[in-house]
């Protein structure tokens, strides 16, 4: 057993926010375990690990222990050969008091840390999906319903990947992006679990720091959150993925760093907007940011304790098929729409996928409106028109977008470019 203590104070945080505590792994080691302890009333400390060959995982503040071996690892961490040499426990000094916090670290070789359970999740059958709504689309395309922001036990969510996938099916979604914080340990499991549960699972990583959060979509490997935020955007694009700024105006999780080269997408409708659906702060941010990024929605689902479920809001993507590659191609091309209707079920809300108001762009001049009668279509310039029919097409030049469908009291219902 290797034991160390770090005296973390504001001076250490200022010069080394992601503090490495090294330890040596001998050749032939079959597993390692790490456990930290500290007074949680005096600070928030994140946990991660780096090996000689690179990053091995991150659990943020969700865990205080992990284990890694050649073929298994705690969710959030990558299994694989334990290379001989210097490893490091990485401590994210997220929130510290005026004084200091003592962080005790124990490293066990072999590991004395147990793996968490991974319960069996039966598949749901016979659940209709958003794509079966048969929204108007060009030949060879369809509109698929999904959610671009979800978490599992691989970071700070409470659901396994299979449990999240089943919940997405239950909500009537065609796809879910799984975007755990600062790790890609979930990526190798997504295709098989998605096939087992009958839903497309898109690889993602929520790159997360105190300066902003953003989703890197695609099977593109790990994006180093310790690098400058511009590097997140550039590296994601270089590898063929899609980067989205997340909840750009959400309290202390807002995006606060200017960018020279902007990402392709923005989480325009985050679940936090449900607190005030007539608030227009995100519109001001979008205008200041240049009014160019593809519009996405994200529930930021973590656990059943919240009011929202996956699909609040629903993002609709016009794509050739329901594969991660085609869905992300649709995002790159800007073929998205967002709807936010929900209904109360006991102590939470669930998305209304099939009867929700929706607006879709048909071409550069026309928008199609469904379930819109009596509501108001508003463009980004401020022009307003009352929707007179439940289902209709409306003249809506793309250069005046994005467009918003609101209730008469200005409650946001749906969005399209």
Automatic annotation (TrEMBL):
It comes from the Bacteria. It holds the Pfam family PHP. Residues 146-211 form the Polymerase/histidinol phosphatase N-terminal domain. This is PHP domain-containing protein. It comes from Scrofimicrobium canadense. One of its GO terms (molecular function) is 5'-3' DNA exonuclease activity.
């Amino acid at each position: 057993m290797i034991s160390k203590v770090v005296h973390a104070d504001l001076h250490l945080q200022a010069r080394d926010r992601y503090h490495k505590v090294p330890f040596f792994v001998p050749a032939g080691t079959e597993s390692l375990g790490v456990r930290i302890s500290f007074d949680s009333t005096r600070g928030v400390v994140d946990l991660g690990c780096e090996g000689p060959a690179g990053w091995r995982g991150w659990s943020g503040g969700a865990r205080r222990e992990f284990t890694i071996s050649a073929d298994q690892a705690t969710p959030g961490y990558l299994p694989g050969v334990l290379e001989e040499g210097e490893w490091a426990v990485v401590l994210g000094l997220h929130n510290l008091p005026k004084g200091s916090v003592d962080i005790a670290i124990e490293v066990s070789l072999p590991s004395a840390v147990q793996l968490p359970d991974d319960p069996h999740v039966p598949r749901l059958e016979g659940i209709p999906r958003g794509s079966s709504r048969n929204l108007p689309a060009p030949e060879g395309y369809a509109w698929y319903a999904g959610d671009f922001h979800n978490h599992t036990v691989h970071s700070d969510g409470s659901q396994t990947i299979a449990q999240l996938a089943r919940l997405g099916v239950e909500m009537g979604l065609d796809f879910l992006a799984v975007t755990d914080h600062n790790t890609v340990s979930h990526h190798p499991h997504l295709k098989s679990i998605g096939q087992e549960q009958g839903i497309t699972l898109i690889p993602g990583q929520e790159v997360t720091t105190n300066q902003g959060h953003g989703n890197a979509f695609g099977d593109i490997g790990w994006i180093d959150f310790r690098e400058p935020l511009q590097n997140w955007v550039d590296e994601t694009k270089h590898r063929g993925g899609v980067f989205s700024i997340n909840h750009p105006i959400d309290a202390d999780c807002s995006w606060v760093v200017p960018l020279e080269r902007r990402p392709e997408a923005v989480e325009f409708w985050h679940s936090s907007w449900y607190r005030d659906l007539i608030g227009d702060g995100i519109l001001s941010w979008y205008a200041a940011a240049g009014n160019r990024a593809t519009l996405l929605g994200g529930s930021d689902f973590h656990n059943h304790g919240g009011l929202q479920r996956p699909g609040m809001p629903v993002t609709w993507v016009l794509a050739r098929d329901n594969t991660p590659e085609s869905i992300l191609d649709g995002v790159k091309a800007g073929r998205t729409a967002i709807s936010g209707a929900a209904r109360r079920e006991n102590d939470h809300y669930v998305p209304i996928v099939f009867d929700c108001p929706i607006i879709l762009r048909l071409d550069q001049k026309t928008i199609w409106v469904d379930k819109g009668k009596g509501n108001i279509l508003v463009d980004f310039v401020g022009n307003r028109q009352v929707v007179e029919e439940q289902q209709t097409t409306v003249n809506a030049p793309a250069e005046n977008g994005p467009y918003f469908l609101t209730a008469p009291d200005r409650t946001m219902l749906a969005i399209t470019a």
